[in-house]
Amino acid sequence: TKSTRPQRLLKAVQKHATRGDPQSVISAIDHFCRHSEWAMNVGDEKGCILDSVVSELNPEKVLELGTYCGYSTVRIARLLPPGARLITLEFNADYAAIARQVIAWAGLEDKVQLVEGASGDWIPRMKEHFGIETFDFVFLDHWKDRYLPDTKLMEDCGLLRKGTVLLADNVICPGVPDYLEYVRNSLSYKSCYFKSHLEYTKAEDGLEKSVFLG
Ligand SMILES: Nc1ncnc2c1ncn2CCOCCNC(=O)c1cc(-c2ccc(F)cc2)cc(O)c1O
Ligand SMILES: [Mg+2]
Q1: Distance 170 CA to ligand 2 centre (A)
Q2: Is 118 in the pocket of ligand 1 (CB under 6 A)?
Q3: Whose CA is closest to 66, among 24, 16, 118?
Q4: Which residues are catalytic?
Q5: Average model confidence (pLDDT) for the chain?
Q6: What is the pLDDT of residue 116?
Q7: Are 169 and 141 in contact (CB under 8 A)?
Q8: 35: closest CA among 200, 209, 168, 210?
């Protein structure tokens, strides 16, 4: 039977990347997506912006909503200090299976906990199930119509603290208008836009960085 795109992406990683070398995994995925098949990873251009936000913050507790094949998981986890933890939620079991293998190939499995399920179901269980008090950094890259309800849910569950940084992918393409309107107008957030391009294309896209003010 025909392979899936995530399976072909994993094959490219296993063929071209060096085990335990996260940068080679990132480069192998970017090469595959640029020269073989487009895939919805955050990509290299927005990925550099993601890197700079993470490096500046040095977060201990990270939440990623939407793992897909684990590309941004690897980008973030490779920059985390020893002892820091990244929890990543993926709804699609097939994507999750591929992501686990990509994360393992990068040698980052000790820093990452991949959880299969819907963000709306798992966010209320973060404290009791993972012993998380609050998150330092949240990367939003899942269903675009879940960004706003899940942000409000994280607020209501007390998972955000003064200074928690939310970084949202795809705020232009596919777009998250309700989320943007909220974080840009709420007195509880200081928000700014990083203009970029949709991964591996010339179309405009960008990342919105929003600091929770408590
Ligand atoms: N734990 C969870 N809870 C809830 N939902 C969850 C979940 N885990 C996953 N999901 C489901 C959704 O996951 C994938 C979401 N990402 C995208 O859809 C996406 C699409 C494009 C795109 C596509 C086509 C174009 F033409 C132009 C742009 C680009 C991107 O960068 C994207 O990120
Ligand atoms: Mg995205």
Answers
A1: 5
A2: yes
A3: 118
A4: 141, 144, 169-170, 199
A5: 98
A6: 98
A7: yes
A8: 200
Radius of gyration of the CA atoms of the chain, in A: 16
pLDDT tens per residue, range 101-128: 999 999 999 999 999 999 999 999 999 9
Q: Dihedral sign, CA of 115, 119, 69, 78?
A: negative
Q: Is the CB of 170 under 6 A from ligand 1?
A: yes
Alpha carbons 186 and 191: distance in angstroms, whole number: 9
Specify the ligand 1 atom closest to the Cα of 142: 15
In whole angstroms, give the CA distance from residue 27 to residue 154. Answer: 33
pLDDT in tens, 26-60: 999 999 999 999 999 999 999 999 999 999 999 99
% of the chain surpassing 90 pLDDT: 100
Predicted-assembly ipTM surpassing the 0.90 threshold: yes
DSSP conformation letters of 40-85:
-S-HHHHHHHHHHHHHHH--SEEEEE--TTSHHHHHHHTTSPTT-E
Q: Which of 5, 37, 40, 171 to mutate to test the pocket of ligand 1 (most atoms within 8 A of CB)?
A: 40
CA of 194 to the centre of ligand 2 (A): 14
In the structure, ligand 2 is a single-atom ion and the residues with CB under 5 Å from it are 141, 169-170
pLDDT, tens digit (0-9, with 9 covering 90-100), for 171-205:
999 999 999 999 999 999 999 999 999 999 999 99
Closest ligand to C-alpha of residue 173 is: 1
Task: Specify the pTM.
Answer: 0.98
Contact predicate 105/24, CB 8 Å? no
